Amino acid sequence: MWRNYHSAATVDEALAVLAERREKARIVAGATDIIIEIERNVRRGIEMLIDITRVPGLDGITLDEQGWIHLGPLVTHNQCVASKLIAERALPLAEACWEVGAPQIRNRATVAGNLITASPANDTITPLMALDAVVTLRSTRGERTAPLSKFYSGVRRTVMEPDELMVDIAFPAMSAAERGMFVKLALRRAQAISVVNVAAIVSLEAGVVNRARIALGSVAPTIVRAADAEAFLAGKPLDDSTIARAAELALGAAKPIDDVRATAEYRAEMVRVTTARALRAIRDGRERGWLPVDPVTERRKAAPRASAGLAPYSSTARRSWPAWCLPPARTAQRSSRSKGWPPTVTCTRSSRHSSKKAPCSAATARPAS
User: Fold this and answer.
1) Element (H, E) at 352
2) CB 209 within 8 Å of CB 236
C-alpha cells in the first residue's frame, strides 16, 4: 500500500521524484485503474503516488502542421468524445472513448493511463493501434518515441522504464478519403469489459480500397493488427464477398483464450462477425455507430433549473428526501479486505512559485472511494 503522495507542479519535478523512487513510485492522473490494482495487490511494492493533475498544459488536443493529432497525458476519455477534431479526423478513437466505463470514469480517466495499464481488453488501445499512434516517453535521462505497435511486451506489460512518463500520444489525422469505425462486443451494452473489439480504417477511392488498417482487441496477449486481412483488401472493391473473406483472414491474427466472459471458440467467431460488421458500416456510410452527435460530458453546461420548471437546489433540500433514497450511513467498521485503512500518509505539495514543499491535508491524500 502506498504511504507517500506527491503533488507535482511541473513535469521536471515529477520526473525528478520518479527518478529517485523508480519502481516504488507511480505517476497518477485519473488513477481509476492504479488505485484498484494497488488495493487488489496486482501492483506491489508501490510506496509513492506522484500526482501530475496540477501541471498546466498537459490536457491539450491539437493538430500540428504535419497533420498529426497530439493528445497530452491528462486528456480524458470525455475530452476526446467532445472534441470536434477527434470526431472528424479520428472517429474510431472517439467511439472507443465513448464505450469506456460510466460517465464519471470517462470524466476522470485519461487515455494515456488506459494505454499504460496495457490490458488487451482496453478500448482505446485498439483504435490508436489502427491509427499508427506513436507515444513519447520522457525521463531525466532524455526523451524517446515508440510506436504503439512496439510499446507492449505482453499482458499488462510495456517497454516503459520505471523512471519514464508518457508525455504525448500522436497519430496521423485521418484524411478525407479515409473512413473508420470502432466496434465493441461485451456482455452488456455499457460499463462492460470487451469480449472482442475491432477498429477498422479504410481509405477508399471510387469504391476501391487503397489501404486498410484493422486492429483487434481482447483476442490475444496484446492488441494486434490483422495484417493478412489488410493486405487482402488493398486494391479490391468493398463488396460483400471481399468483406466476408477479409473477416475470415482477420481470424489469423487472433489467439483467443477461454475466460469468465467468453470461450476461445466464441471469441474467434466474433472476430469474424465484428470485423465484417465494421467494414460493412464503413462501406455504407454508417461508421458513426452509437456515438451521439452531441454527447453529454462534464464540459457541457446544464440549463438553469428554473427554465425546466424546477426549484433551485438547496443545501437543506436533501434533508426532506425519503429515507429510502438516501445513501446508507458510513460506519467505522470495514471489511477485512480494507483492514488497515486509512494508511499513515505523508503528503507533499509543491508551489509553482517556490521550491519549498507544503503539507497538504489528509483528505487530499486519500484516493476517492
Assistant:
1) none
2) yes
Tell me the per-residue pLDDT of 97-130, one tens digit each, with 9 for 90 and over.
Answer: 999 999 999 999 999 999 999 999 999 999 999 9
**Same fold across 1-55+342-369 and 178-283:** no
> In terms of C-beta density within 10 A (0-12 exposed, 13-18 middle, 19 or more buried), how is residue 130 classed?
buried
d(CA 73, CA 22): 19
Rounded to 5 degrees, φ, ψ at 92 are -55, -35
The answer regarding whether domain 178-283 maps to CATH 3.40.50.300 reads no
What totals of helices (H) and strands (E) does the chain contain, helices first?
13, 16
pLDDT band, very low/low/confident/very high, at 305 (cuts 50, 70, 90): very low
The three three-digit cell numbers of residue 66, written as one number = 504535419
Report the alpha-carbon distance of residue 25 to residue 48 in Å, rounded: 5
Number of Cβ atoms within 10 Å of the Cβ of 184: 26
Rounded CA separation 251/248 (Å): 6
Contact 51, 349 (CB under 8 A): no
pLDDT at 41: 85
Q: Where are the domains of the chain?
A: 1-55+342-369, 178-283
The three grid cell numbers given for residue 271, joined into one nine-digit string: 472476430
Type of residue found at 258: D
Buried b (16+ CB within 10 A) or exposed e, 282-311: bbeeebebebeeebebeeeeeeeeeeeeee
- Cis (ω within 30 of 0) for the bond into 342? yes
Which amino acid, one-letter code, is at 121? A
Residue type, 104: Q
Nearest to 174 by CA among 273, 253, 69, 80: 69
What's domain 1-55+342-369's architecture? 2-Layer Sandwich (3.30)
* Distance separating the N- and C-terminal Cα atoms of the chain: 15
